[in-house]
Amino acid sequence: MQAAVGEETVIEEKLSMLFGSLDKQDHAGLARIAVCRRVSIPGCFCIHLFWKTSQPDTGGSWVGHKTVQVLKDHGLIEHSVWTEKEY
Q1: pLDDT digits over 24-50, tens only?
Q2: Within a domain: 85
Q3: What is the spatial distance between Cα 73 and Cα 86, in angstroms, rounded to a whole number?
């Protein structure tokens, strides 16, 4: 996500409220959420939702779509589904 400079605190507060309100039982399989900020570009965020599942939902999760909905008025968002390969 690329938010306007100065919106970082607003973004972090919205994410804290959203992720803090999740009922873990309703989102079984959600293992971890990581929110990263790019050091050299103010307002640049990367949000990773890690799932324990054998078959990812190619359309994305409710949590992913809700995150987009909550943040879309604050900047440019790209939402996609990836898989991780461990070596």
Answers
A1: 667 878 999 999 999 999 999 999 999
A2: no
A3: 35
Number of domains in the chain: 1
Specify the DSSP class assigned to residue 67: H
Which DSSP string corresponds to 20-39?
A: HT--TTTTTTEEEEEEEE-S
Residue 84 covered by a domain: no
CA 46/CA 29 separation, integer angstroms: 20
For the segment 64-84, what is each residue's pLDDT rounded down to a tens digit?
999 999 999 999 999 999 988
**What residues make up the domain containing 67?**
2-76
- The answer to the question of residue 28 being in a domain is yes
Cβ proximity of 62 and 22 under 8 Å: no
> Residue 83: inside a domain, yes or no?
no
DSSP 17: H
- The whole-angstrom separation of Cα 50 and Cα 83 is 9
Q: Are strands 75-76 and 45-51 parallel, antiparallel or unpaired?
A: unpaired
